[in-house]
Amino acid sequence: MRTLITGGAGFVGSHLCERFLAEGHEVICVDNFITGRPVNIQHLRANPKFRVIVHDASQPLFVDGLLDNVLHFASPASPIDYVKSSIQTLKIGSLGTHVALGIAKAHGARFLLASTSEVYGDPVVHPQTESYWGNVNPVGERSMYDEAKRFAEAMTMAYHREHGVNTHIIRIFNTYGPRMRLDDGRVLPNFVGQALRGDPLTVYGEGQQTRSFCYVLDLVEGIYRLLQKDYPHPVNLGNPSEITIKQFADEILKHTGSKSAIVYRPLPPDDPKQRKPDITLARTLLGWEPKIGREEGLKLTLDYFRTKV
Ligand code: NAD
Ligand code: UDP
Predict the structure, then answer these.
(1) 266-290, pLDDT tens digit by residue?
(2) Among 120, 133, 243, 251, whose Cα sits 20 to 30 Å from the Cα of 296?
(3) What Å distances lie between residue 127 and 79, 142, 210, 211, CA to CA?
(4) Domains, the chain, ordered by start
(5) pLDDT for 66-97, tens place per residue?
(6) The model's pTM
(7) What crossing angle do the helices spanning 294-306 and 187-197 adopt, rounded to 10°?
(8) Which residues are known catalytic residues?
């Protein structure tokens, strides 16, 4: 089997490269390192089945030989990254998805799109089911990401319906683990970095907004299982254990043993008030559910971050 992974040098992408290599696949990682890092895949370079193509995946790419799978994970993913690179984010979600689908079509390969819970926007249905169409501000400060991913889903379904490509769409809910960048601005690296340095933890708003955090290896298992199925419609992948951001800050303080204070900062515009996946579909279709709870996942993640601060 030969698998191409765009965004393979990123946080999630690097774990995917590892998993597909472990399953015996040849893996081609396509990345331009806009938010990913060479160090994330350094340990894989010695494997003769691993190849890296440094390339902007919004631009056409022609790959020699057979391909069985194309996994499209390239995109800035943290709010500060996608706001800083807003046009690049729109291009990789739109033009990049078109390029990746074109590669899959040309090779008769399976295709999987990394979509996001952000397609639900600031959801009024809770928990979020795949049948919910969302509540997205099309011109808001997150729109470069939300709308790019919504377009990417539409483009994926069009390639399925019009060209018969064997497509898959996952909607990923907040995922964490080793290889997140300490400075990517997402809540976990922010809180952990602040706690380990003894700086105050910055809770945005009153901290009553909720998220549901999934450990990265649980996500990777769900992705691997979905790729074996012929199911073109979106599937939520995430951990339904929901927590407020203030409770999350308290948990980080407990797990790090830090004496840092908690300070409150303004809530960014359009920050979703609640987020929790309904994973009934993934449970029934894939026999999948997360196995690694926050206690264990945070321990594994802290072991990694302690070597970085
Ligand atoms: P990340 O920023 O660590 O990884 C993204 C990777 O894509 C990086 O290596 C980056 O360099 C690469 N990339 C971006 N634009 C590119 C381009 N034009 N050409 C080539 N490479 C490019 O982020 P992540 O958390 O690993 O997210 C990976 C994917 O999963 C993204 O598509 C993201 O939208 C999706 N996702 C992640 C989460 C999460 O919680 N981590 C949640 C929802 C969706
Ligand atoms: N957040 C916070 N403090 C921080 C970073 C984030 O309170 O230092 C909040 C943010 O406002 C959001 C939640 O934590 O409500 C998750 O933010 P993140 O950027 O990780 O991802 P999102 O789920 O918003 O895409």
Answers:
(1) 999 999 999 999 999 999 999 999 9
(2) 120
(3) 22, 21, 11, 11
(4) 2-177+214-239+276-291 (3.40.50.720)
(5) 999 999 999 999 999 999 999 999 999 999 99
(6) 0.98
(7) 60
(8) 145
